[in-house]
RNA sequence: GGUCCGUUCGUCUAGGGGUUAGGACUUCAGAUUUUCAUUCUGGCAACAGGGGUUCGAUUCCCCUACGGACUACCA
């Protein structure tokens, strides 16, 4: 009984998709592609109260950016459309009614106050888990306790009601999870979950089973937070008569906070100083901004590679994977069982690796963009050269500008440390000759510049190590950076001359000392 | 509280009845370099605890501890 593999990612549009969600989507995608199956996205918007404008677009854009392709989705359509549960609303009631008719569900008329009262009562009676279940339902207002004609009357009068699942009192429910193996839960620990809400919408529990069945889903990969309700879902498949085509389940370990307490949440981004969302998000109500990996300058390939390794590994020493390689290497069996703490350092490391693998000319685009924003003109050739010099020392694309400002702007301040240690009259003598002769070079490049410097040093009976730091100081104002001769080549003879002259003037007190 | 899930270096993890318990990130030291970074070499660093089973347990079983999730007419 080999069915065509169909997996789905089913987020609800209640806010920005967080990286845990992206990882879930990624694993679904990897499995689908690995097995030649279909990747489906379904929007779970059965809670109208929690709808957040823009969230759906955010989900689409995030997945697109990450390179997770959808074969069927609300935006693309597909053979099982619609792919928004709100648009599928008319489909659910019949299944709920089917369950009522077969005796596996019932109508309940209890008000919110009555439910609250019941819970309070049970709590007072020291019941461990106050819930609407096989025992307590006998004391509530539902079609199990009310006379039949009373129920009909209430229904006919349009009174608000919900449909609840009639969970068996004593039954061992077994569930096979691809990651955890057999999980056993007793039905007495599950309450009579609401299937249809009083607003006519199904709850997640009903909707996801109905849709997964109708959409012929074969594998459900979702977060571990769903594990406790998975037995309930098994029950639903059974009562609906769909047990033989029930999908396989895989519950992913959670993404945890770096300090090891609880799952990674929205607020952690600000707290720890790294993004927890793929894209920047502005809360439509509060206007609060949350940073995103894309805006931070992460490359989608690095982001995906890093995410894939949060809870999964190929079992080899290889760490850098393209999406295609991930697809080939991915297996559910190699997903870990335990929660994974988020490691920002490692995330940065992945981005560095990807950055360094890029050709200089491509990296130059980041620099060019930063320059454009500041109205500084620069040729592609020059930007490419600078990028090549900088690539070993950047983590994020923004570093290209941050670390290379001195290529475009003369220093206004000088490192005090180097000035006091290395700036002296002998060095100044060398630089004075150096800057004057620089313009006379027939061939102007890093090599000839170095040659010139060496010649002058020889004349003064000095060694290169005695002046390099000071020269760097004069040209860049800094104490560290890439090869200085290359910098001087890129900056040009005239500009270098000006900078040295300026430095000699400004640093005169040090030379005198 | 109850139910369920989990626990190998600080972090991500490999491994699996007998191993010097391996790698990566971080960190430290050395080498190279005009500096810093890179690179290279090397170092520190782990099987939560207690019982079993076994000739032998980090690995299998149980208990404890700790961590986490869930416990809504939210997903």
Q: What is the CATH class of the largest domain? A: Alpha Beta
User: Percent of residues in helical segments?
Assistant: 40-55%
CATH topology of the largest domain: Rossmann fold
* Tally of helical segments: 22
What's the number of domains? 5
Gyration radius, rounded: 33 Å
Q: Give the DSSP E fraction (strand runs of 2 or more residues).
A: 5-15%
Span between termini: 89 Å
Mean pLDDT: 94
CATH homologous superfamily assignment of the largest domain = HUPs
- Helix/strand structural class: mainly alpha
Beta strand count = 13
Strand order of the largest sheet: 3-4-7
Produce the secondary structure layout.
Blueprint: E1 6-9, H1 19-34, E2 38-41, H2 55-66, H3 89-101, E3 105-108, H4 112-124, H5 148-156, E4 162-165, E5 172-177, E6 181-186, E7 194-196, H6 204-214, E8 219-223, H7 230-240, E9 248-252, E10 255-256, H8 268-272, E11 281-282, E12 289-290, H9 293-296, H10 300-308, H11 323-329, E13 340-341, H12 344-357, H13 360-373, H14 380-390, H15 398-402, H16 416-422, H17 425-438, H18 446-459, H19 464-476, H20 484-491, H21 493-506, H22 508-512
Parallel strand pairs: 1-2, 8-9, 10-13
Antiparallel strand pairs: 3-4, 4-7, 5-6, 11-12
Helix pairs in contact: 1-11, 10-12, 13-14, 17-18, 17-21, 18-20, 19-21
This protein binds one RNA strand of 75 nucleotides through strand 6, strand 7, helix 6, strand 13 and helix 12.
